[in-house]
Design goal:
The complex is a heterotetramer, with two copies of chain A (312 residues) and two copies of chain B (265 residues).
Chain A: H1 9-16, E1 22-25, H2 34-42, E2 48-51, H3 57-64, E3 68-73, H4 85-91, E4 106-109, H5 112-123, E5 129-131, H6 139-142, E6 147-150, E7 157-161, E8 168-176, E9 182-183, H7 191-197, E10 200-208, H8 211-215, E11 221-223, E12 230-233, H9 251-260, H10 264-276, H11 281-288, H12 290-295
Parallel strand pairs in A: 1-2, 1-8, 2-3, 3-4, 8-10, 10-12
Antiparallel strand pairs in A: 5-7, 6-7, 8-9, 9-11
Helix pairs in contact in A: 1-2, 2-3, 5-7
Chain B: H1 14-25, E1 31-34, H2 38-48, E2 55-58, E3 62-63, E4 85-86, H3 89-97, E5 104-107, E6 111-112, E7 118-119, E8 122-123, E9 131-132, H4 139-145, E10 148-152, H5 176-186, E11 193-197, E12 201-205, E13 211-216, H6 222-227, E14 234-241, H7 247-257
Classes of the chains: A alpha/beta (312), B alpha/beta (265).
Chain lengths: 312, 265, 312, 265
């Protein structure tokens, strides 16, 4: 079958993420592509439109670094902890004195299901996705792309969201083969939809596996190599978020972020130390230290194996 | 922030009272959509006390979670390991929530009005906000599609307001009559908000669709309530006092669910 | 958690399938619920509306037995072999002399994607499902429930199909626990959508497993016990179709059916021998014989196990 | 039903020639949506000859099948074991087909007209059919969404008709001009039918959108073609002769793919 798509993070981001692109780094609390986001910062990409249900720490960092002009989202925050300072300073121009000189960030806002519907419509080449949401709220006024649509069966109105087709979707996963056939377990979020909706796809994995491993359990494949442009092997590339079965969420970092993001200088200092000052994820992992990493390893809970049967 | 406890009872914080009161409201419920923050600990407490058969649904795509520890977020790996089913968010929102399988959806709020309409989007005008809040997340669809909605939040003049700055999630709209008509006409599955649990008391929604204080937490006073509500609140004729947290409830919170005190301090 | 839902096929069908119901027995070539269909025949249910993408042998048998008045479908035939005589005789009234006295079967016809969209809309409580199909064909004329819908974004028209909400969906699966939490691997068809769309759900499994087995691999669960009314344990209950990993499709029977279904007396004789004359699937399996069954067992192809991690 | 073979070549059946010709048309293609029956064996032959990188997509929900035996149906367990991905039909039709990832969709037909419009629904009026055929299955959406469509079918006056009784799947509609306009206006991804392989020859579609005989199979004659087509068929100026099946192609069909002769007799 087709040749290897394995690439370094640097090469993958250089080749596939372009200034002005709409970029989706998905992953709902699970499998967030921090390593990819940091590389986008290091390569000083500009004018990106960033899409993501939950623009959390990674988008706060990217927006602080100045890569984005616009954000498409449904929930903005550091879940369970607090706010995202960099984004907030660029979205509250009326009050934040210290942010007055910062470029205004354009916001385009949906609900979770709306964002999922947008990716689904993008992946399925539909002109809209219908959903029962937004009734009697101010969201359609705030975002005129949320529109009413009448059922052709005379039984009322629902709302529609437009397709979202990112130029690039970046998905972190447990494993893939060299051709990009990608398997995930645990929370699936909307990575499949975001990948199928995108023009280009970068898959970042904890582990590169032989094709046989993927083919032994085809029901676990969420993204076929067919739509994948690059496979980056980057263990611990989702830290401080987590990878089911591989490492835990580093909650300490999420708590620490609350202070870091509170003012622009401390955030920029953090970027200097942990992003610009390092040449890639391997250096980041080394800087984190073996002890911190060991503390995040979970105990074992194997899925067990099922029988597919050999039919010859 | 320890509340005045009745003599002889253990001391407890206002947050602990709020969590316990919310958990008790879940008695008899079957399927609960768990939100981030306080709802997360309340439902986990309910599963260990009044509602052992409560099935926890997390919008991240989990049905039947059995968290071995208190989840640090609504997407914690502990809600996956040992769960009944893990599914894509598309299926979770389509089949579980919009399909009508959720009995109770939990919402928080930055602002709530007397009819239970909720703002989690902005303080100030949308285009030039004074404070940019997180936004809807799944709240606006939970408000419409969950069979009923529980709200858990602290009371203050800034949060309990006569008129919210932005309606993120629909409650009883302009009142029960309008709410029932619109829900019927538009085919909403949800009946709307049924309870608001705060740090001071428990509010249910009356026949007119407006919230009514039914119970004061131990140590809380009506004056305190009035000082933290931006309208003249309705108070039940037979205003009760919430039963203080039991020793077992407090033990579960302090020893099993939140030994670090992340939610309860 | 809730008590056991395990029931005999006889009790499950008696309690949950009612005359006049819309019944969906789904399974696309894989996991076709023959045992359940035969029990519906034996209990002489009447006036059913049968829904299924591919009304193949099982619906030919059920319709020959007189349980149905209407069929909702997208592809009618014995795939790779030939036609379905019982259905054909009830759908070609103009020509089939021998069928003139048979009751006319009402047909409501879609495409595969249309049927999948119908179940999806039913499961998701949507008033319609939009798809890019049916353009410039005669299908919308033949079935006025296939309607045009205009995109609210001014970019044209697609087609819509209405929700399908069966009274009962019957799903065959590899395994479930006593509460009905059901796992499937191999072809998934649209069983998940059909189950979520239904008012009542019967799950028929090859194997009843402890809850722990399901919880060890939650990503394999396609149907939660929450929506399941009865769990029937019926090994070999999908024969002559197949169960991935457990047994092969019995192609000999599909070939034989071509002759059996060609005329009404031979079909009725077959029903007498293999359905009415047996009291359930165990007797059917015994009558098939150990040798036939052994010949359908595949070799081994295990999926392998993945790590979920213990997070305590 | 052995065709007159050129002297020295191995004898082969008309079905074998049809399968081999269809397989060869797949040279250079990447992703193929496999239909039931003859397309099934043709694509499996192509994967072993002219198109080793051909990815097989089965509407049952399989991508990247590597069947260890010739699948007995389009849902055979052998297309699952060892495949790259297995997915729900919702996702297969939504993301792979409608999403535009399919290069070639294979269709069969009970009736086809000069512009490649196809009937697989009824012979006679829809409400009172003379013959009830299987219906669309996935055909009507494959016809619109696959980048191009290959048709494989036998020729006869009953199947190659000037006007089909029911249009199940769109081809070039009333001709190229109308087809291109409608496809553009309605945003179809598919360019429509590009080849019809029959037991007698190979037809491609000309600039006017009508099928044109480009190659006669060995042993077939133009008279035979005219006797099995319900209109005056267009024939290429430089009508070729299809290269007979090679010994290797015949060996693959007879020994590996269809030793029982289910498709080829």
């Amino acid at each position: 079958m087709p040749g290897s798509k394995v690439a370094s993070m640097r090469d993958a981001v250089a080749a596939l993420v372009r200034d002005g692109d709409t970029v989706a780094i998905e992953g709902f609390t699970h499998l967030i592509g921090f390593a990819a986001g940091h590389e986008i910062i290091r390569q000083r990409k500009r004018d990106l439109t960033l899409a993501r249900l939950t623009p959390d720490l990674i988008y706060d960092q990217m927006i602080a670094a100045g890569v984005a002009r616009k954000l498409i989202f449904s929930w903005l925050g550091n879940p369970g902890v607090g706010g995202l300072g960099a984004i907030r300073r660029r979205a509250e121009p009326a009050t934040s004195g210290e942010g007055r000189d910062l470029p205004r960030l354009e916001l385009e806002e949906y609900s979770h299901f709306g964002m999922v519907g947008r990716y689904t419509a993008g992946a399925a080449n539909l002109p809209f996705y219908p959903l029962r949401s937004y009734f009697e709220t101010d969201l359609p006024k705030a975002n005129p792309l949320i529109r009413e649509i009448e059922s052709p069966y005379g039984d009322g109105v629902v709302y529609a969201v437009p397709p979202l087709k990112p130029d690039v979707s970046i998905v972190h996963a447990q494993r893939a083969d060299a051709n990009g056939n990608t398997q995930v377990w645990g929370l699936l979020g909307c990575q499949k939809e975001a990948a199928f909706a995108a023009d280009r796809v970068i898959v970042v994995v904890e582990e590169l596996v032989p094709e046989d491993v993927v083919r032994a359990d085809p029901n676990r494949t969420i993204i076929p190599g067919l739509i994948v442009d690059a496979v980056v092997v980057e263990p611990f590339g989702a830290h401080p978020s987590y990878v089911q079965g591989a490492y835990d969420r580093d909650n300490r970092f999420y708590l620490e972020w609350d202070a870091i993001t509170r003012d622009e200088p401390s955030l920029q200092a953090w970027l200097g130390e942990w992003v610009y000052g390092l040449d890639g994820r391997a250096a980041y992992v080394e800087k984190l230290g073996a002890e911190r990493i060991a503390s995040l390893r979970p105990g074992s809970a194997p899925s067990g194996s099922v029988e597919y049967g050999r039919y010859e | 922030m320890t509340a005045d406890a009745p003599a002889g009872a253990a001391a407890f914080s206002k947050n602990e009272m709020m969590i316990v009161a919310a958990a008790r409201e879940l008695a008899g419920q079957r399927v609960c959509f768990v939100g981030v923050g306080l709802p997360n600990i309340a439902v986990n407490l309910a599963q260990r006390t009044v509602a052992p058969e409560l099935e926890l649904v997390y919008e991240a795509g989990v049905f039947g979670a059995r968290p071995a520890r208190l989840p640090l977020s609504i997407g914690d790996p502990t809600i996956v390991t040992g769960a009944t089913a893990v599914t894509s968010m598309f299926e979770l929102f389509s089949f579980y929530l919009q399909g009508g399988l959720i009995d109770v959806g939990f919402l928080g709020a930055a602002q709530i009005d007397p009819f239970g309409n909720i703002n989690t989007t902005v303080i100030g005008p949308y285009a030039e906000p004074v404070t940019r809040l997180p936004g809807s997340g799944g709240a606006c669809e939970i408000a419409i599609n969950a069979r009923q909605v529980f709200v858990i939040m602290r009371q203050s003049k800034r949060s309990f307001v006569e008129s919210i700055d932005f309606r993120t999630s629909a409650g009883n709209l302009g009142g029960a009559e309008q709410s029932e008509r619109i829900r019927r006409e538009q085919g909403w599955l949800g009946r709307g908000p049924s309870v608001v649990v705060t740090d001071l008391g428990i509010w249910h929604f009356g026949e007119d669709g407006e919230m009514r204080l039914d119970s004061l937490h131990p140590g809380a006073t009506l004056d305190e309530v009035r000082a933290t509500v931006g309208w003249e609140p309705k108070v039940a004729d037979s205003l009760g006092t919430t039963e203080a947290p039991t020793a077992e409830e407090l033990r579960l919170i302090r020893e099993e669910l939140d030994p670090g005190g992340a939610y309860t301090r």
